[in-house]
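User: Here's a chain of 363 residues. Predict its fold as tokens.
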Amino acid sequence: MKSLYKLLIIFPLIIISTKPFTINQYEALSLKKKGISIKNPYTSKFLKLTKKKVTAFKIDTNPITLQKAAKYSLELLKDKKNTKNRIINTKKVKETLRFIIALIENDKKNKRPFRILNTNFLNKYFKFIRWSGDIQNAKKHGKIIKPGSIYLTHYATFEINGNYKQTKKYPYALYQIINKYFDQDLRFKISKQNVLRGRLNLPIYKNKVKPLVWVTRQGLEEALMQGTTIVKMPNGKKRIFCVNKNNGFAYDQNIKKRENQKRYWYFKELKNNNFNIINLGKTVFAGDIYNIGLGKIIAIRYKNRINKKIEMRLGILADSGGAFVNNLYQLDYYGGAFKNHKDFYSWVKPMPRNVQSFILIKK
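Assistant: Prediction complete.
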């Protein structure tokens, strides 16, 4: 297996722009006021090395996309702010990611079945660490999970309509920060409700923020919730926007209606969409990276709700969000880009809410 690593010289990592997954001081203060601690001192009690073989009828994962997700994750880990892995040291995490990249490249090059989809191979070369969800914390937030399970949710990138100018139909903008003073101070004083009431359109904020595109109220909420959105313009052009910096208001899990959240994100436009999370659908999980750590290979195992077969899916913990601060009971599975919600729900349907979850580490 050592020969696999030689392939990394021939197939270098993709260079992409990344941002650190850090919590700013205002958000940390907001969490503290709510009595929420970012770091969970009991994280290890929810994780246990399993000694039994982990089996499945099928591993439903695209190896090539998983390889891209592994490269993406390695790039994220180049930023030292992203390497505070609480459970497994960064060196071992990177070793596991590089092993998977080389393994898939080797099988692709030799035109043979992908070994990453073989449970016997996985059990031989990887340790399976069982992640059992925090039942008590889940219950506090209205989520029911069985012992030994994780609560699984799903998210995606949807196409919405937008406009180049503000109109009655498209009254709300996705804003970008263009001023250093606003970035370092003013953005932390403006809630989402302030933005909706037009605060950023006042003369005082001219040359501090700029509207990138104008969308509907529903479109705005979709973009804020999903993090990345595709906006179809009147001339048919499609533009991609992703969240960049937030306003420091912590996500409040007690507020059920997303429209009432005070948390707001400023955006940036992606000019090159060849290598970003949109292209990593079905191989990325969002979760509590502040306690579990970025770059962990995740396997979820469950009984398919349609065919009743035991299946597994592989992905990488490479995303997060406000709802995952001190949240050791949930994973959010990214499906990629969908044209409509019907197609999205068809993809979601076979997967139950409660799944087994494992962290894979190279032996």
